[in-house]
């Protein structure tokens, strides 16, 4: 069974790697968005799926990466691969600044604090107009690089998934999960919960930071509203939930299914899109809070490496 | 750059802050009721306010009904909407971890906003009803703000009277403190939940009706009030209903005062920084809130 | 011999009520101590204060010659003080084996060996891969017990180890506790089951309304009028 899966996975990866030679420009750009969502959902999973600390402001790291990379490319002329990596680093710095005080808070309070994070960043971006272009946005020199960005996004998606695998199969990952299960008991058993949460938080910020930069490069233009919307966070959360948070492949599955759905529906029902999305969120929360893989895992006692 | 700040300016700003704060307090009380009774973080609170504002707008537009009279319509209507929403959906996440209630109410929230966009379009609306200001010595306050404040105070006082003096209100407070004990005392907890959500939505609707004469009405107008209500609850202490009053007034004051010294954009950041500071220093709120 | 654990005048308040009101104890190493008292007398609160789960409002706590009040629970754990909980707190979605492994940071093979040893000690080896949440009450209790032994602590606080446990299992647990004492460890247990306390503990502390009422050998305590009054009312 496992070997069949690995073979299938290898084939899929090869197919994806070859896709740009066959696909249309539109197709490539669509696929790279899918990779982006996989990376986002998987990153959210790292902090919220494993430790149970729900990050409601995760898009902040995406925006941070976008603006950091955007400024480095647009104002300082950096090459985009390096700029995007720098975006990831900046996102990690932000996570440290935010996480240090906020991860000490209990559940609902942490959620509230993270909710507001977006707003503040948006405001700060608007304030430092000289640097960020404020409400008018930031334009990047035009560059047709969809294919390299496709591969870059794909690499990030693979890297984050791989990181998730490494963590979940390690004792570090186990310790993260104990925080979710029973934080008081975890502390009593010698686990420095704050430090573990912080590490998970930092790791969960890198992916969004990098893909934020890549998305900025791909779009060629960033503005506060497009990179800090709450709906992005919600989307990555719902994707991870739908597929199964706390699992390895859950966020991937969720991203693929929901993204496909979004692409198909949006094209037809643009006005109903948000309404349907709201309904999906409600449905997922009420009917399958553990997600597809979560339910399967519990029912068939599947190993954690699902 | 900034002209010298006179005492009159400070006075104006302080009173403006209190005026705005009373409105925040009323709306936040609603959110606080939901959190206190059900431990649910209701992101759909803002859309309730928005619906109240639209109710007022349409009644004014079609029937010429005074916005202040439309309160008599918007509050009961949204009370029912809220109670139904609780009964159908929110009830299922009452004991769930906050992720579930946040996501659920967020889903409801964007569904409602989207519905409003479909039905009302995103065009900005306004209710031109009361213009001009009351002049009191060196101070000038827009009439609609003053009246909004007075009405908000009345409604909030009514809400507290309800909580303290009526049987249902006491039952509600009992459920906030301990659901099990309340049940053992024969209180129908499910009904109380619906009641709390209904009352909360009515309070939000009242807020919407009152701001309808002051700001532009559009489907997304509620979002900022949701966030500010959360902030007020944190300031005042979750589950601490009088605390919501203090928190609301404090928020209003801080906002207005900071507008004196900082640009309006950074204003919002001030609210947030205040939130984080309070969360770090006294997560249970400035007054004695209850740890969740 | 210097005491391994000293509690000096610890006070812990919740709201206006002092759950623990100026309690002082001294425990010598290598003995089994009991902590008894009517419900609400502050026993678990005292445990929580000692292990850092709650910060005490006044007083000092010394463990192995170091002040530990104010330290975080995980720091106190690593100093060699472990505890179990009144309500079982295993990690339900981790397997029994993982519950044990998660406690250690030492190299994996050594940790694995020790975990398997401990599981064998309480005859749970075949359930090593089972989700802890799926185990029976008694089995979970055993897992929690051996979990605290993973890092070989010098002192262990047991919160109602006999609660809800059947006769056979109880005897195994008690034997295990005596075994710990024989290895030189110190045990302090909260317990309501008087037979257990009498049969196991060398010294007993009695708490009532957050204050230490009496202290002494089990036989002496049992006959103490004040203790009888505290339990059966005035």
Describe this structure in words.
The complex is a heterotrimer of chains A (306), B (292) and C (234). With 306 residues, chain A is mostly helical. Chain A has a domain at 26-229. Chain A contains 15 helices and two strands. Chain A has helices at 2-22, 25-51, 59-74, 80-102, 107-127, 129-132, 146-168, 171-181, 183-188, 193-219, 224-227, 230-243, 250-268, 273-287, 291-299, and strands at 138-139, 221-222. A two-stranded antiparallel ribbon of chain A has the order 1-2. In chain A, helix 7 (146-168) packs antiparallel against helix 10. The longest helix of chain A is centred in the N-terminal third of the chain and has 27 residues, at 25-51. The two termini of chain A are 12 Å apart. Chain B is mostly helical. Chain B has helices at 7-38, 45-63, 67-88, 98-120, 143-165, 167-177, 179-184, 189-211, 222-236, 241-261, 264-281, and strands spanning 133-136, 139-142. A two-stranded antiparallel sheet of chain B has the order 1-2. In chain B, strand 1 (133-136) and strand 2 form a beta hairpin. In chain B, helix 2 (45-63) crosses helix 3. The termini of chain B are far apart. Chain C is of the alpha/beta class. Chain C has one domain: 3-Layer(aba) Sandwich (Rossmann fold). Chain C is 37% helix and 25% strand. Chain C contains nine helices and ten strands. Chain C has helices spanning 43-51, 73-79, 96-101, 108-121, 137-149, 167-182, 194-200, 218-223, 225-232; strands at 5-14, 17-27, 32-36, 58-63, 66-67, 81-83, 155-159, 186-190, 203-208, 211-216. In chain C, the strands form two sheets. Chain C has a six-stranded mixed β-sheet with strand order 6-7-8-3-9-10, sandwiched between helices. In chain C, a hairpin with a 2-residue loop joins strand 1 (5-14) and strand 2 (17-27). Chain C is globular, with a radius of gyration of 18 Å. Chains in contact: A-B, A-C. The interface between A and B is large, with 45 and 46 residues.
Task: Put the structure in a nutshell.
The complex is a heterotrimer of chains A (306), B (292) and C (234). With 306 residues, chain A is mainly alpha-helical.
């Amino acid at each position: 069974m496992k070997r069949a899966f690995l073979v299938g996975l290898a084939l899929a990866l090869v197919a994806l790697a070859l896709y740009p030679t066959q696909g249309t420009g539109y197709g490539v750009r669509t696929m790279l968005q899918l990779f982006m969502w996989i990376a986002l959902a998987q990153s959210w999973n790292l902090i919220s799926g494993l430790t149970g600390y729900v990050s409601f402001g995760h898009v902040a790291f995406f925006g941070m990466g976008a603006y950091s990379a955007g400024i480095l490319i647009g104002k300082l002329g950096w090459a985009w691969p390096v700029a995007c990596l720098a975006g990831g680093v900046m996102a990690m710095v932000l996570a440290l600044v935010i996480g240090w005080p906020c991860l000490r808070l209990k559940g609902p309070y942490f959620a509230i604090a993270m909710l507001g994070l977006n707003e503040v960043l948006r405001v700060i971006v608007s304030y430092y107009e000289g640097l960020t272009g404020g409400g008018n946005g930031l334009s990047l020199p035009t560059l047709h690089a969809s294919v390299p960005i496709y591969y870059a996004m794909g690499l990030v998606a693979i890297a984050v998934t791989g990181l998730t695998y490494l963590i979940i199969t390690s004792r570090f990952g186990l310790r993260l999960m104990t925080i979710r299960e029973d934080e008081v008991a975890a502390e009593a058993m010698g686990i420095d919960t704050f430090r573990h949460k912080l590490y998970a938080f930092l790791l969960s910020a890198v992916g969004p930071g990098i893909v934020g930069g890549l998305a900025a490069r791909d779009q060629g233009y960033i503005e506060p509203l497009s990179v800090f919307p709450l709906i992005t966070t919600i989307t990555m959360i719902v994707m991870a939930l739908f597929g199964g948070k706390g699992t390895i492949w859950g966020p991937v599955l969720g991203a693929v299914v929901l993204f496909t759905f979004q692409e198909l529906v949006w094209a037809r029902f643009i006005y109903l899109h948000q309404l349907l999305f709201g309904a999906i969120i409600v449905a997922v929360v009420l009917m399958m809070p553990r997600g597809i893989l979560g339910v399967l895992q519990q029912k068939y006692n599947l190993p954690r490496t699902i | 750059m900034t002209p010298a700040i006179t005492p009159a300016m400070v006075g104006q700003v302080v009173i403006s802050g209190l005026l705005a704060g009373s409105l925040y307090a009323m709306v936040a009380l609603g959110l606080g009721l939901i959190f206190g009774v059900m431990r649910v973080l209701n992101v759909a609170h803002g859309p309730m306010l928005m619906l109240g504002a639209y109710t007022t707008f349409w009644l004014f537009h079609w029937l010429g009904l005074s916005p202040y009279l439309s309160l008599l319509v918007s509050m009961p209507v949204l009370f029912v909407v809220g109670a139904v929403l609780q009964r159908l959906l929110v009830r299922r996440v009452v004991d769930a971890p906050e992720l579930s209630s946040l996501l659920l109410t967020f889903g409801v929230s964007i569904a409602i906003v989207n519905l409003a966009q479909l039905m009302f379009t995103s065009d900005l609306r306004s209710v031109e009803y009361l213009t001009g200001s009351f002049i009191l010595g060196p101070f000038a306050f827009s009439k609609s703000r003053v009246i909004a404040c007075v009405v908000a105070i009345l409604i909030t006082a009514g809400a507290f009277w309800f909580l303290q003096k009526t049987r249902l209100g006491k039952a509600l407070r009992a459920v906030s403190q301990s659901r099990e004990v309340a049940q053992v005392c024969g209180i129908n907890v499910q009904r109380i939940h619906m009641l709390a959500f209904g009352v909360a939505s009515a309070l939000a609707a009242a807020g919407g009706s009152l701001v309808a004469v002051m700001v532009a009405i559009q489907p997304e107008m509620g979002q900022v009030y949701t966030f500010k209500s959360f902030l007020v609850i944190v300031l005042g202490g979750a589950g601490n209903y009088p605390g919501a009053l203090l928190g609301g007034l404090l928020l209003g004051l801080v906002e207005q005062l900071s507008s004196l010294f900082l640009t309006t954009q950074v204003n919002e950041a001030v609210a947030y920084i205040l939130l984080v500071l309070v969360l770090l220093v006294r997560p249970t709120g400035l007054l004695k809130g209850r740890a969740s | 011999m210097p005491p391994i654990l000293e509690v000096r005048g610890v006070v812990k308040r919740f709201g206006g009520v002092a759950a623990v009101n100026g309690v002082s104890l001294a425990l010598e190493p290598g003995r089994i101590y009991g902590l008894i008292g009517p419900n609400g007398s502050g026993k678990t609160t005292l445990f929580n204060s000692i292990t850092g789960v709650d910060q005490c409002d006044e007083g000092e706590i010394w463990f192995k010659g170091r002040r530990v009040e104010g330290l975080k629970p995980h720091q106190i754990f690593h100093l060699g003080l472990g505890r179990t909980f009144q309500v079982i707190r295993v990690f339900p979605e981790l397997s029994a084996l993982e519950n044990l492994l998660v406690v250690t940071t030492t190299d994996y093979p050594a940790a694995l060996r020790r975990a398997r040893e401990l599981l064998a000690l309480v005859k749970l080896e075949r359930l090593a891969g089972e989700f802890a949440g799926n185990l029976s009450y008694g089995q979970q209790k055993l897992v929690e017990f051996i979990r605290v032994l993973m890092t070989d602590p010098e002192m262990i606080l047991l919160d109602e180890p006999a609660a809800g446990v059947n006769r056979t299992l109880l005897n195994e647990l008690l034997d295990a506790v005596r075994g710990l004492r024989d290895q030189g460890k110190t045990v302090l247990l909260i317990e309501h089951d008087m037979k257990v306390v009498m049969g196991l503990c060398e010294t007993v502390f009695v708490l009532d309304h957050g204050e230490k009422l009496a202290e002494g050998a089990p036989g002496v305590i049992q006959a103490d009028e004040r203790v009888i009054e505290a339990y059966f009312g005035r």
